Amino acid sequence: MRTLAFDGRMGASGDMLLGALLAAGADPAVLDSVEAALPVHYDVGATEKNGILATRVVVRLDGGDVGDGVDHGDDEGVSDAHHHGDDEDHDHAHHHEHSHDHAHGGDHAEGRGALRTYPEVVELVEGMALSASVEHDVLAVFERLGEAEARVHGTDLDETHFHEVGADDAVADVVGVCLLLDDLGVERVVTTPLATGGGEVTMSHGTYPVPTPATLNLADDASWSLRGGPVEMELLTPTGAALLAHLAEGVETLPTMRVETSGYGAGGYDVPEYPNVLRGIVGEAAGGLRRDPVRVLETNVDDVTPEVLGSLHETLAEVGARDVTVLPTTMKKSRPGHLVKVVVKAEDAERVARRLAEETGTLGVRETGVSHRFVADREFETVTLAVDGERYEVSVKLASAGEERFDVSAEFDDALAVARETGLPVREVMDRAETVARDR
């Protein structure tokens, strides 16, 4: 399974994730669409952190504005800038209030440009002509950020102001990471425990210990772990936490992998004891189920005939449904009804929802909060059975995770056809076919 593994020992921020993905082989040209949609550009270059060559990404506002008014202690420039960059000096030293992605460097223009509410961010992203899967990831990340902020302040999601992380440059961080990850084409993303740093950080509402309240809320909904240290500064920002909470599974150590490529994304600070970088490793990993991005649609109906309900598996599959489940339920006034659940890919969701409404007459289709499912790798083999001197072919589905095969299942229609010709019970035909497949 092609896997991207992050080494979280120095935390993560939006710009470090951008740098790590580019260094690991993602094509910087995919960022052009962001520059066309927002008044920003990406300054991509090489830098050195404690002897390690790393990729530094700075999102700059058009017109040359590169600062958020912050002295982050980053006194080095970004060298060897790519075509997304310019030649401005990168040193800044001014007073500021806390920015969500400030911790790893001072030349990031975090918090500059228009500030937005959550619905305004959604409207902006939906107008960027992203692919359905990338748009889904971007909106899911901002939903996590908004919910984390809303929990901190006791507000509703739609009322949440994103402050710095709703600005143009911060939107460029989130959209850029999702585009680069899509370009890498990995099937699974994992991260080791993420270092938070330590000490305190000053925000617009006062001084708080690291990790900040929003980062803690994001970690609460993630599958990865936090660990303190190893330095007294903020290492894991809310933007980095939100991206990894949505995109990555937590692991305690790097998985067993056959490495294809690796790279380092640089933060802005120079830390004497440690290289301030996020390492990304791409390769084939053994074992584990594959993370498959999906959405789940559902609706309740109480006036649909059994024939129509039974046909949904076929009619919805025609427009992209991956799985259809019909469950009996009890509706208001104790009327018997059915819950229809449909698994779809993001790009098929609207088309499948429309067909579901047309077929059942339902007045509404819900989209649940599911973002992915874990699936085994599947392949089909054809086995040959000998019965009374005659040879028959049966297709068999094999399920595996890496090198481990854990299920063998004969295709029922093939087995039924053989059973009818031979007079054998269909169950016996399936057992024989599965035994042949296992013994290969």
TrEMBL record:
Transmembrane helix in keyword set: no
GO molecular function, a single term: lyase activity
UniProt KW keywords: Lyase, Nickel
Region ranges (Disordered): 67-112
Regions of compositional bias (Basic and acidic residues) in chain numbering: 79-112
Domain of life according to the entry: Archaea
Chain ranges passing through the membrane: none
UniProt KW Repeat keyword: no
Family, similarity comment: Belongs to the LarC family.
Name of this chain's protein: Putative nickel insertion protein
Taxonomic source organism: Halomarina oriensis
